[in-house]
Amino acid sequence: MDIKQLKYFLTIAEEGQITSAAKKLNMAQPPLSQQLKLLEEELGVKLVERGSRHLKLTDTGKILMNRARQILELTNSAVKEVKDFSKGLQGTLSIGTVSSSGATLLNESVLEFHKEYSGIEFEIYEGNTFTLIDLLNKGIIEVGIVRTPFNALNFECKYAKTEPMIAAIPREYYWEPAKYSISVSALKNKPLIIYRRFEQLICETCMEYGFEPQIFCKCDDARTALLWANAGAGIAIVPKSAFELAANSNLLYKEIENEKLKTKIAAIWVKDRYISPLASKFIESFGIV
After folding, report:
1. Which of 66, 122, 142, 197 has its CA 20 to 30 A from that of 97?
2. How is the chain split into domains, by residue range?
3. Per residue in 51-89, pLDDT tens?
4. At the top level of CATH, which class does the domain 89-160+264-285 belong to?
5. Which CATH class is domain 163-260?
6. What is the residue-wise DSSP string for 129-186?
C-alpha cells in the first residue's frame, strides 16, 4: 500500500463512484478499478460494496477512509513544510475573514507585518464563521479571522480586544435623549435586524429584561444588517467595529449596556496541524490584548 493507492481509494470513497472518481483523478476507469481491487487483495478485506450505480463503504472501508485522509494530510503538510523552509518567508498566505473583521484585520500590528514581510501576498476568503471553520478543516485556508461565539474545541485561538454590540438606529427612529449608550429595555417593541447566529443570545438577554424582542429580519452578514437599517427598515444589532467600517449616513449608533452583548474577533487555526512560517508570523502580529 502506498500514498498513491490511498489517494485513489479516498477519492473513490468521497465520490461514491468509480466513474466520477476517475474523472476527478484525470485517469481512465479500468486502471482505477484495478487499483481498488489490488488494495483489497493486499489488505485481505472488502473495502466497498459494489451497487449498480454507487459504491458503499464497508465498516473496514470507513476506517481506512479516515486513516487515508489523515495520512494524506500529513504527507501534504510535510511537503509544504520542506518547501516553506527552503523558500523562507515568501509566497501567499491564505486566510479567511468574517465581513465585520476589517478594522481588526487591518490594525497597526498587521500593517507592520506587511511592511516587514513585503514579499508576502494574501489570498482572502470571506464568509461567515461557520463557512470559515469549514474552509479551515478542509485546509483551504491556514488562519481564520472569526467572531465569538464559536466552538473552539478543535482550534488554537488568539483573541483581539472585547468590543460591545451596538444598536444602529435610523435617525428617524431615535427616541432617547442624546447619550452614548442605551439599555436593553430601550429595544422593547422596536423592529430589530440581527445576526442569525446571535439570535439566541439576544433573545435570552431581552427575556432577562422582561420582554421578547421584535425581530424584523435575521441575516448572516453585518453589511446586510446595516444596509437594511440605513434604509430605515429597523434597528441593526451589530458589533461596533462593523459599524465603523460601513458608510451609514442615515444611522446613529449607541452601545448596548449589557455585559453579555459583547463579542471578540479571534485568529484561529487547526490544532496539531502544520502551519507555514507565514501563518505563524501573521498570528504573532495579530492584535492581541
Report:
1. 66
2. 3-85, 89-160+264-285, 163-260
3. 777 888 999 999 999 888 888 877 876 777 676 655 556
4. alpha beta
5. alpha beta
6. HHHHHHHHHHTS-SEEEEESS---TTEEEEEEEEEEEEEEEEGGG--S-S-SEE-GGG
